[in-house]
């Protein structure tokens, strides 16, 4: 790929000439394992859909093009400058004088800490009374919800207790806290009667690790899902195949499937968790909601995927993740109803962005009030899951229960009222 020009921008954002055309995001930076996953996760966090993508790398330098559009009905104002800054923060720093980062690392010199084990982020407790839910505001502020208890009083007031971490890792500073206060006040206005942010105590933080057991029936329904080759034929044209004949050095992974919100992220996180590295990739989503993905990939040792068992396991894992990237169920909790939504946690420890926001938005459209909500992590089998438990009050008729499951699922998958893109 050659040595990049030091004056070249790491991230460039070019808007379409005509309204409605995709915005093109160009990223040119040193490569690192899992970079594609991290970039796609951030794009999803900012409420954007990837309609086309192209990426290539020689293992040292990567070049990525993403054509993105705002999701239909997106309530949050798009902050392109902030997106650019956050993308730049994710990219490794280029070595000076055209030197290679791999050679510097071998010599014990590190320009950045991207590859170092991430320290556990500081946890803060956000407490406030208001007359509305604020998940949209927290998403805009890049505050990640680790656990929440939301209690709604009969007069409509909401007491929110959020255990949060800051994606920017600045919430311990006065300026960042003031930004949070001001943003909440500007959106909620007079309905916000009080607001506090404090560092969570060690006892509070330890409580995040503990979570009540999931109902056995819910575990059976939500997690015992594995999509084999035969089953995938009935999953809306979902197809995952591998071919070692087209490249002497790479395995071609071909995916054909229906589109959904965060599709590229789901592919990239799965490959990252399976230690598969992409050398060249191409993604395209058509207007009719179908997607085609071609990926030339290698194992972590730089070799092709030739072991038949590994091929079958990876294909099965991809089919399962693309068929049901999130799991939704409605269960009885005594006389009341509880909504359960689960998404897999990356090996790096990161959960899927915007899940709680989408849940609350879907329930708002269905005129369902949240009485209590908890977010916890559970290990089921050999995987960790982030599980959202939403207490909806007294049980509903079966027809309404079906509407709740379908409404929440469609919102999470980007199928609500508009075709996915």
TrEMBL record:
Swiss-Prot/TrEMBL keywords: Repeat
Residues covered by the ACT domain: 15-92, 337-414
InterPro entries, A to Z: ACR1-12, ACR2/9/10_N, ACT-like_dom_sf, ACT_ACR9/10_C
Gene Ontology molecular functions: amino acid binding
UniProt cross-references to SUPFAM superfamilies, sorted A to Z: ACT-like
Keyword Phosphoprotein: no
Domain of life of the native organism: Eukaryota
Repeat found in the keyword field: yes
Function: Binds amino acids.
Protein name as annotated: ACT domain-containing protein ACR
Provenance organism: Oryza meridionalis
């Amino acid at each position: 790929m050659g040595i990049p020009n030091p004056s070249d921008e790491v991230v460039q954002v070019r808007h379409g000439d005509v309204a409605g055309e995709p915005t093109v995001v160009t990223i040119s930076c040193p490569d690192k394992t899992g970079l594609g996953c991290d970039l796609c996760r951030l794009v999803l966090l900012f409420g954007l859909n990837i309609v086309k993508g192209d990426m290539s790398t020689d293992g040292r330098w990567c070049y990525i093009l993403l054509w993105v559009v705002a999701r239909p009905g997106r309530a949050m104002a798009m902050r392109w400058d902030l997106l650019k800054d956050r993308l730049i923060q994710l990219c490794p720093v280029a070595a000076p004088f055209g030197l290679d980062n791999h050679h510097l690392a071998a010599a014990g010199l590190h320009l950045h800490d991207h590859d170092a084990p991430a320290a556990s982020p500081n946890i803060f407790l956000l407490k406030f009374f208001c007359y509305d839910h604020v998940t949209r505001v927290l998403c805009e502020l890049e505050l990640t919800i680790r656990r929440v208890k939301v209690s709604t009083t009969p007069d409509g007031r909401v007491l929110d207790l959020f255990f949060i971490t800051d994606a920017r890792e600045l919430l311990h500073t006065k300026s960042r806290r003031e930004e949070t206060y001001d943003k909440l006040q500007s959106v909620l206005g007079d309905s916000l009667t009080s607001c506090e942010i404090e560092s969570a105590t060690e006892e509070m933080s330890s409580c995040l690790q503990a979570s009540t057991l999931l109902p056995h029936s819910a575990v059976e329904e939500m997690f015992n899902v594995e999509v084999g080759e035969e089953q995938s034929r009935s999953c809306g044209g979902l197809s995952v195949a591998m071919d070692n004949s087209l490249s002497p050095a790479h395995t071609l992974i071909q995916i054909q499937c229906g589109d959904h919100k965060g599709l590229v992220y789901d592919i990239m996180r799965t490959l990252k968790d399976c230690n598969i590295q992409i050398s060249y990739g191409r993604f395209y989503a058509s207007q009719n909601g179908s997607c085609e993905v071609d990926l030339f990939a290698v194992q972590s040792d730089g070799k092709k995927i030739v072991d038949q068992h590994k091929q079958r396991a990876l294909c099965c894992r991809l089919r399962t993740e693309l068929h049901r990237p999130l799991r939704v169920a409605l269960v009885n909790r005594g006389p009341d109803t509880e909504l359960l939504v689960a998404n897999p946690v990356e090996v790096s420890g990161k959960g899927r962005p915007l899940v709680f926001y989408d849940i609350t938005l879907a329930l708002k459209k269905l005129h369902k009030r949240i009485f209590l909500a908890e977010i916890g992590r559970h290990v089921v089998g050999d995987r960790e899951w982030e599980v959202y438990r939403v207490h909806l009050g007294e049980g509903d008729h079966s027809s309404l229960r079906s509407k709740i499951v379908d409404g929440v699922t469609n919102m999470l998958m980007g199928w609500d009222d508009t075709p996915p893109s």
